[in-house]
Design brief:
By secondary structure, this protein is of the alpha/beta class. It has 5 helices and 8 strands; from the N terminus they run βαβααββαβαβββ. Strands 4-3-2-5-1-6-8-7 form an 8-stranded mixed sheet.
């Protein structure tokens, strides 16, 4: 399986709380829902549809999983929501228990076993393992060299601070731009793949 990261991201690299107010106020973040003015169904929505078409499963950190688990089950009947609800899901957490997994078809991966377990999953055959949001998990995946594709929906907005997906460990990681599309609102949907050193 390929591990594919899909993120709404501001020009200054913030991925925190694109979905709505109150989604994630850590650090007094005050711009929840900042992605909404830039969303369009064709380019930005089309990118998500394409990612879901190739997905065999979804992978989340705890907080993103809890936000999604609270939102999607009530939207049944919409084709995208139905896909989100039915597809296999993995959540990485050190605090959730099996009894907390209320969102259909979710498997728990213990936080202290996550890197080893995700290496195993990545080596299996199948479609993509798609990550949405989950900045702490994405930083770990990038740090460990476990990301096969990075799909960024770069929104034309500066948020002045907030959570990032990028490791701050001083390491250089070179990527290849494999596709790009620009929406009428100025969103750049950029797909990158790591350049492996030979």
């Amino acid at each position: 399986m390929r591990i594919v990261i899909t993120e709404f991201i501001s020009l200054d690299g913030v991925v925190q709380a694109p979905g709505g107010q109150g989604e994630d106020n850590d650090g007094n973040f005050a711009h929840g829902g900042w992605s909404h003015p830039f969303f369009d169904p064709e380019v930005v929505g089309g990118s998500f549809t394409e990612a879901m078409e190739n997905a065999e499963a979804l992978l989340f950190g705890r907080r993103t999983w809890q936000t999604m688990a609270a939102a999607w089950p009530d939207r049944a009947g919409d084709p995208f929501a139905d896909r989100m609800n039915c597809i296999p899901k993995y959540v990485v957490s050190q605090t959730l228990g099996e009894g907390d997994l209320t969102w259909h078809n979710t498997t728990l991966i213990a936080g202290d076993e996550a890197v080893a377990r995700l290496r195993e999953l990545r080596e299996t055959d199948g479609g993509d393992l798609v990550v949405m949001g989950s900045p702490t998990l994405v930083r770990t995946l990038l740090s460990e060299g476990l990301v096969d594709e990075l799909r960024l929906m770069v929104m034309p907005v500066l948020l002045g601070g907030g959570k990032s997906i990028f490791p701050a460990d001083g390491g250089m990681r070179t990527l290849e731009l494999v596709s790009t599309a620009i929406s009428p609102a100025g969103v750049h949907v950029c797909t990158y793949r790591p350049i492996t050193k030979s």
